[in-house]
Amino acid sequence: MGSEMDRLTFMKLLGIGGAVFATGVPGFSEALGSAAKASDFYFVQLTDTHWGFEGPKANPEAMGTLGKAIDAVNALDPQPDFVVFTGDLTHITDDAALRRRRMAEFKQQAGRLRARQIRYLPGEHDASGDQGEAYREAFGPSRYVFAHKGIHFIALDNVSQEGSILGEEQLKWFAGTLGHVPKDAPLVIFAHRPLFPLYPDWDWTTTDGQLALDLLKNHRFVTVFYGHIHQEHHHTTGHIHHHAATSLIFPLPAPGSTPKRAPVPWDPAHPYQGLGFRQIHAQPGQQKAGDGEGLLQVSEKALAATQKPAGTPA
Ligand SMILES: [Fe+2]
């Protein structure tokens, strides 16, 4: 199914057969057409929800944390234009039936979001057990393109294949896709793992990520949003900005700061500490001013800070 979907996506990307407008499925053609006027908007990034995780020391509220995050996003006014989950939607399991059940339950929870559009990416917890098969059944293609109000978005899958790779075939697809993006157009990449070698000893890297970054070198305004490392992190490689968001299950230590990559224990005095989500305000057009500063403004929302004080009416 995946390859068929990929073919269809690519045909839509190229505008073959009028599929873009006949189906209403967004593709880059919309961004390039007159209907895609640049205007300000914002979207929300949620990541690493690990639905199905059990570990009271790391998060005794594991079954309730996603719901709290959804409530917090639903309380935003105005609502975001879309919400993106950047992987590890579910916690890893070897049991294929349980994997599918967790994905169905996760999808049901995410369905409570008021935002009109929800985008998903797989993490290795979702996809490594079956090369992404159950994920694609539940959520559709694991890589795709879309455009929104003058910004081009590309979601990459660096988790479904062994070796923490994008893979040759996907890189070819990526190169072809980028060929349709003007070099001075704002471009946002979503991925689960960092595309740069943040800390390879902890698998905080994409083995062939540099090849993807090389393909982006002539695009002037590129920002990557990712998850995987369960903490806020900001980095630049050349002119490319990379931002990791906090998770919604448990924080992990700073890269290499502890001997093991183990969850930061839950602190009963500060519940939900280190958990949260991110709002990204986009101002397409601002990039013309220079180096892209001001195009995307990233702000973190701590889940603890979104708790209603006791006694506050719902
Ligand atoms: Fe994760």
**According to CATH, what is the topology?**
Purple Acid Phosphatase, chain A, domain 2
Instruction: Please tell me what the overall shape is.
Output: globular
CATH top level label? Alpha Beta
* Cα distance spanning the termini: 44 Å
The CATH architecture: 4-Layer Sandwich
Task: Tell me the number of helical segments per DSSP (H or I, 4 or more residues long).
Answer: 9
The SS-based structural class is alpha/beta
Identify every distinct bound molecule in the structure, by name, code or SMILES.
fe (ii) ion
Return the string of H and E elements.
HHHEHEHEHHEEHEHEEEEE
Fourth-level CATH superfamily: Metallo-dependent phosphatases
Q: How much helical structure, as a percent, in the residues?
A: 25-40%
Radius of gyration: 19 Å
Mean pLDDT: 87
Q: List low-pLDDT spans.
A: 1-26, 31-35, 309-314
Number of strands: 11
Write a brief caption for the model.
This protein has 9 helices and 11 strands.
Would you mind describing this structure in some detail?
The chain has 314 residues and is α/β, with parallel strands linked by helices. It has one domain (2-257, 272-306): Metallo-dependent phosphatases (Purple Acid Phosphatase, chain A, domain 2), CATH 3.60.21.10. It is 25% helix and 19% strand. It is built from nine helices and eleven strands. It has helices spanning 2-14, 19-23, 28-32, 62-74, 96-110, 124-127, 133-139, 168-178, 209-215, and strands at residues 41-46, 82-86, 117-121, 144-148, 151-155, 187-190, 222-226, 233-237, 240-244, 276-282, 296-302. The protein has a six-stranded mixed sheet. Helix 5 packs parallel to helix 7 (133-139). 43% of the residues are buried. The structure holds fe (ii) ion. The site of fe (ii) ion has 8 residues, from loops.
